[in-house]
Protein 1
Amino acid sequence: MDEITVPTPSPHAAGASRGASGRVGPTADRRFSALPGRPGKIIAIHLSYASRADQRGRRPQHPSYFFKPSSSVAASGDTIERPEGTELLAFEGEIALVIGTPARRVGLADAWDHVAWVTAANDFGLYDLRQSDKGSNVRSKGGDGYTPVGPTLIDARTIHPDALRVRTWLNGEIAQDDTAAGMIFPLAQLVADLSQHFTLETGDVILTGTPAGSSVAKPGDVVEVEVDVPGGPSSGRLVTTVSQGSAAFDAELGSLPAVDDLQRTEAWGSREAAGLAAGSSAESGDLAEAGRFEAQSPVSATSPVLADALRAKLEAVPVAGLSAQLRKRGLNNVHVDGVRPLHPEAKLVGIARTLRFVPNREDLFASHGGGYNAQKRVFDAVGEGEVVVIEARGEAGSGTLGDILAIRAHARGAAGIVTDGGVRDAAAVAAVGIPVYSAGAHPAVLGRKHVPWDADVTIACGGTTVQPGDVIVGDADGVVVIPPGIVEEIVDAALAQEDEDAWIADRVAEGHPVDGLFPMNAEWRAKYDAREGDRA
């Protein structure tokens, strides 16, 4: 093919594979025509823009990454196939950095000096395959054509990295528009951080993450990405057309595509955009995006809802007392019925993290029961102080968890597990030590009665509705669900009632009859109030 002209590398990029003229020699593969050559490594970051973090409701403390194969690179004007039997091919417009000189353990101040060029990229991902990838993104983001790059390079010497802008159009309509100044992790930090772990070599490409607005592209759609400095140099528009593939995945060779409402929400950007009813939905986080599908806690265990003092109060008051106060406020349907504790002596206090099973149907179990299913995602994601609450429809004819998952929850710092279904390996689960409430023991695995379906949605457990973020309290009497907005009021009232009941019990022990004392009449109330005044 004809030679192409690209910017001359900056003086610090003396190791780049081109001469002083800045011309690249002929290449046999059009896919890499916008780059110095075939990149040795393509490294992509999971989440880097504040706008995307705000959209997903969580912000990572540190950058995390994955690799994409160089065989996924495509040129502007190429077509990408959406495989047969899939629905969630998502585009992600990004700024791509091309390394000019090798970088190994470089500092933040010097990191940008190792970047020779900047261009546009589209980090396509097939969300139908994310669950089976378990975070590697090998299949979901490694397909042929899934990394279009180009069409031209911007000389890194000529721009300030924070001035870079990335925009994406879907069928001519703007979908993404943000600048590098809106990144959580500056571009130079990504270079410096990666260089701590391995050598960034000449020609390596770093995909620096996508802002809010990423969504799904369908066959026939045209996606365009441009990186520029407003009023300055531009990569030009990187154009990709989506087509419908005709080859299906072979179930005998590996896992098949599978989608659920979580993946639809992630791919489209919101439940509303995905055509789903508005409501609570766990959007995995960048831990989910990082492949661990570790959704942000609906209510953090460090939030005021369960501050240490409040948690201590909940641990001190019996469930029966909390139940009485809830009933006084008209909440009669807040008890998880039909469950019994494996450790009656242990108190359970935590924030609900929900998991829903649906009745087993063989075709649905084939698509949702294997791989990194909803059950595994929840137990991998449960946070410190949270309670995994499982809807199993009161069907105890199958286990809903076993000792491995109980160990995982315990290792994650979970406060406990509540299921209105069965527990498998009950003795081993009990030995883990984590508080577990269930409808009984059963030796069968999930596939006999249940399909793990979705997580962090409103569920029904033991006849009561449980939402992510509800406060769960259990003891030997059972489990109650407390709406987080009234938990402080409920526990303070219950503690006050406990103190009053203890005083009454002492009077009964002294020989007084219960008539007029329980509940207290005016005479006894005056005595109790006087005692309270003396204590004050």
Note: The longest helix spans residues 487-509.
Protein 2
Amino acid sequence: MQSHLSRRVFRAIVNNEPLHSLTCRNRLSHIPPAYRARNTNLLTACVTQRRTFLPLSNPLPATEQSIILPTEAGLKPMRDLIKSLKDRSRVPPDDVLAKAFRDFFVTRAETPHVMTRFQAHLLIVTWRHLKNRHDSAFEESGPKVWQLVFSNESLENVLFVLSEIECLSEARDEMIKLARGVFQFLSDENGFCFDKVNRPALIAFMNLLSMNGKPEEAHHYLNLFWRRARTWKPSPWLTIMKGYAMKNDRDQLRKIIDDLERRGKGFDRGSHEELTKMLISRGVWDAAKTVYECPISSCQCPSLAVKKAVIKSAVLNSDIEWATPIFESLSQHPLNETMDVSLLWEAAHGKSASNISEQIKIWISENPELKSLLTTSCVNNLIEYANAVGNSQLGAEFSQLAPRWGLEPDMQMRLLILESQVIAGDLKGALESMRHLNEFGSTAFQDIRLVNKLIEMLCSFGRQDDVFDQVSSFLDPVFESNMHLWPSTIAAMVQMLLYRNDVEAVSELLRPRLGSFEDNGRRKIRKVLVAFIKDYTQDIHHAWDAYGLLKIAFPETGVMERTDIMTSFFKRDRSDLACQVFGHMRQFDEFAKRPKPDTYAKCFQGIARTADAKNLELVHNMLKLDVEVDLNTRILNGLMLAYSACDMPEKAMEIFHTILQSDEGPSWYTLPIFFKVCEKHYNGTLEAIKMMTKLKRLDMNAYRRIYTSYIEALGAQCELNRAMEAIDNMQSEIGLAPTSNTIGLFYNAVPYQHWKDDVEEWAKKKYPELWMVLERIERREYEEGPKFVGIANEFLV
């Protein structure tokens, strides 16, 4: 089946080329403002999308070809280099690679993005290639080419960007290798002595090492440069200590403090406060605790400001026990200096909004000056605590303290109220808060965590057109600011767009962002796509379009998920699409992604359900050529069932004899399928009787499913008397009495109306109660006569 998703979209994803809709005015888009109209919404309010089907042979317009997204700057030539090195073909020219390497960092100096493992690998390979070429073929390309990469300015910019960019954990090792190579070239190969590297480059390099798990290496370099660095402000030691704190290395922290004491610098209260607050602001609570507990020079106590900061952070991180001694030490300070954190402490110990209001009245009655110290930050702390513990009702109650105390909500309070409404899933309240926040301009929505949570909530209601418009207008500035969106947020947006039947918009959303997520993030997004494809309430064409996107955007999708997708198309009676999914698995080179025995078995089971003889032959031939899959009884069971369903009982009987001669032998699923084959086989009656006789002679228990299958085989062969006798003897043969399902299956198996009438007349006389149950079930007309609906003897292959 030809996908309804534009081939232009698929080609763009495959080639990693930019893409935007040329015809739809309102489209979810990743394209930066410079490349699109300023008044274009990011999400369309229309469910029906207009799509352009461009022939693959027609080139894109020059204007569209020339657009390069900021996230993709420089990537294509570096990707071509890796491909050419792998294929041992001609590599891209030096000037092209040098420009690509430079463009990558110039773009990210202006707008930082996430560094992925794939990007880090491209950069380190390109750097080493250019470095080797610079050493061996400097004159060949000319000095101007190498200045693009190896000038002091370019090298320093690389270190600056690497120190500022967010690096995924899986990309960290290669990113550090690149930074070391650049710093080494800057300090040695460029003619500088080690002590004359530019100060910003030194700071950037040490910060990069320290914040990426290598504080020991940063410590080493700081010792080398200490003669120059001892006068720097802020002290570079804070960076080193921050790195050790993030590794919870208390021994090294104490050694550094002792070393600073010997050097006459010390670890004063100001540095202690600055470093602790820095770690709190970065959300690294354990590291902040580690630094706070470090001794301060001259046995000084921590400042009041840092005490209040760690108490608040401890409350928000549910670490009250640790903060209790610190809070008790505040008793030496007057209440007018600690009232805000004292109110927060009361809330953390279970006090409600009314309790806190009463407490304030008591304090003010004792000291009227405290009334002037009640500020919005006091209320904000309380709402922030309620949000931290996920109690939206408590947050709403705390927010009512502001008007009670005569306080006007500021932007921070509006944001906290919005977060509380997001936690509660209060769509109406959240939209109202968003309107209030619009008064503060674009600066209102800078909190990445809140924005991501808000988008996720809005997307959960996004199938409604009016909410969809709200999502559209809100996302426009979010995308323009290049705010980092979480994988769960992207997954929510993908789900919303899929259920609005806009797969092309999903592709435009994913293309520039998928590379910035680690495997776990990609898994979240992939899960949404797979769930949509398997949703039987969705139109088959939309499900197939979504599968086409999954196939290209998520090549790592495993066999199990692909098998489930294949099965879902079989259940939709689209054997052609299911077998295409199977064929895609067969095309993989990696063994882990190729069909397993279970995949073949389920494929044959699906083909049996749809009686697809054409694809049965195709898949069977694939099985014959697949040397990695050993035939087992489960596969052969499915193959036998498929051939029987496709009216090839002789072939099915051959497979049954193959099972009998195999080392594994038949399973209990094999026998019901065998009797199913007997229903159509020219000698089916004799084969069925022989098998049942053998089972009795071997004293093997014939379970209800097997015995009922035997009755069906007799009925299908019009051996009514034998089948009726088998039903009458069922209790004595297998110890189980016949049920209405037994009679119904017998009736369904018998061909032609006049024989069915005989079965009905017999059942009414012999089993009137069972037949009364069947009469309440709908009968549907088929070519071979009426059948009871919903009665089946299912076979699990």
Note: The first strand starts at residue 114 and ends at 115.
